[in-house]
Amino acid sequence: MKSPMYHITLSEEIKRLCPAFQGVAVMAQVTNSAHNSELWREIDAFTRELRAGETAESIKQQPAIAATREAYKRCGKDPSRYRPSAEALRRRLMRGLELYQIDTLVDLINLVSLRTGYSIGGFDADKIQGDSLELGIGRAEEPFEGIGRGTLNIEGLPVYRDRAGGIGTPTSDNERTKMGLETRRILAIVNGYNGREGLAEAAGMIQELLRKYADSDGGTILYFE
């Protein structure tokens, strides 16, 4: 039986290059589903709100997105070539495209990311090897298969690693630990490159959506820095 919560630490590189970083994780028992109409009504409502009030330039200035872009620069990655996922999702909607419909767990994590600007890692906790994760910086030619992206060059990207290697970056998570209809335990990590402000609200939003749409009690929360 795995620990009910993972031990998450920061590498010395991350501490030096991203000193403001604060994180929060939510771990919960869940039941996934292929589609939830009520959740998609929330997604559609946010989409209308975003398109009415945002521009391509204002997206980059959203505090959590701007801080993640700055973290990429500090770690050695061009955020205009490898966009943080929250920015990429907002830009997709602003281009008039619809959000990808994957499954309820992925869709609700995407909604929280869209609402808050945080790039959020969503993992099947039972696919993570070991009971600890470390946030470091990707190395040259480090193997990483992005979800739906094939081999991803993670050199210079912040990356969470388990015992077997990288599982998540703010641009893409890894196929190895992705969530699916079989997922029964979720680990969701919110990355606060601009500090702790807003993390509690994001974690609470994840818990609320898990209660509403994934037959969960909301799970437990872990702050780390």
From TrEMBL:
InterPro entries, alphabetized: B3/B4_tRNA-bd (IPR005146), Phe-tRNA_synthase-like_B3/B4 (IPR020825)
Keyword Aminoacyl-tRNA synthetase: yes
GO molecular function, one term: RNA binding
Keyword field: Aminoacyl-tRNA synthetase, Ligase
Pfam families linked to this entry: B3_4 (PF03483)
PANTHER family listed in its UniProt record: CYTOPLASMIC PROTEIN, PTHR39209
Name of the molecule in the record: Putative B3/4 superfamily tRNA synthetase beta subunit
Organism per entry: Bacteroides stercoris
